[in-house]
Amino acid sequence: MASGIHVDSGETSDLLQQAVQGDRESWGALLQRHRGRLGRMVAARLDPRLQSRVDPSDVMQETYLEAWSRLPEYLQNPAMPFFLWLRFLAGQKLITLHRHHLGRQMRDAGREISLYRGMLPEASSAALAAQLMGHDTRPSEAAVRAEQKIRLQEALNSMEPLDREVLALRHLEQLDLAETAHVLGITESGASRRHLRALKRLKDILSSLPGGLGEFWP
After folding, report:
1. Confidence of residue 17 (pLDDT cuts 50, 70, 90)
2. pLDDT 10s digits, 80-90
3. Complete DSSP assignment for 25-93
4. Contact by Cβ (8 Å): 59, 93
5. What is the distance between the alpha carbons of residues 202 and 196, in angstroms, rounded to a whole number?
6. What predicted TM-score, i.e. pTM, was given to this entire model?
7. Could you give the CA distance from residue 62 to residue 191 in angstroms, rounded to a whole number?
8. Per-residue pLDDT tens digits for 68-127
9. How far apart are the C-alpha atoms of 163 and 159, rounded to whole Å?
10. Which of 42, 148, 44, 53 is CA-nearest to residue 94?
11. Which residues have C-beta within 8 Å of that of residue 187, sequence separation ≥ 6?
12. Domains plus CATH for the chain?
């Protein structure tokens, strides 16, 4: 393999080599390993206006079919980790779906963000707000948390797209620093600085709102 390309290590690499030789069980094991994270990404980036028309599981299935057909091509030049490649393919399918169903509505709303690895639909600020707040099922807190979620969502919407995207990558998709750096096309230390800066900007925005941060923010 050429220098400078990414090679998955350990068991993932072994499964990839077995899969490219036609081993469907190895392929299934690879997909199962990444199903949860890929599902979160697709659900978070599918435009809410399409939720009644497009099933995220269909997007994932189409992604898997394309990945299977292109696996030999990927292994000839694996320029990104396998999961990020799956994520890239799924992102391209989402862009195609959005353009097909929404057309000019999507472009006018600025629903795409340009990253080092191409275009992706923006993550839902509602989904990101819910992830940042965590889970609290106490009925007595439901009304307060609903109000706090709205405030947090409004704060996220007021942020620069790239800052919001960094928070989505780290907290919603739960990419590690190396994966985040690869997606953004920067170093891990650069990704860490961007993440910390985005958190600070969000905290500053929340601090400026009536009532301060609220109990949801550490």
Report:
1. very high
2. 999 999 999 99
3. HHHHHHHHHHHHHHHHHHHHHS-GGGTTT--HHHHHHHHHHHHHHHHHHHHHS--S-HHHHHHHHHHHH
4. yes
5. 10
6. 0.81
7. 30
8. 999 999 999 888 999 999 999 999 999 888 887 777 655 444 455 555 555 678 888 888
9. 7
10. 42
11. 181
12. 1-122 (1.10.1740.10), 123-218 (1.10.10.10)
| Contact assessment for residue 206 and residue 152, using Cβ atoms and an 8 Å cutoff | yes
Q: Are 185 and 173 in contact (CB under 8 A)?
A: no
Q: What angle do CA 27, 13, 67 make, to 5 degrees?
A: 40
- Whether 8 and 78 have beta carbons less than 8 Å apart is answered as yes
Q: 44: number of CA atoms within 13 Å, CB side?
A: 26
Q: pLDDT, tens digit, for every residue of 192-202?
A: 999 999 999 99
194 HSE (CA, 13 A, CB side) = 23
Token match 């190396």: residue? Answer: 178
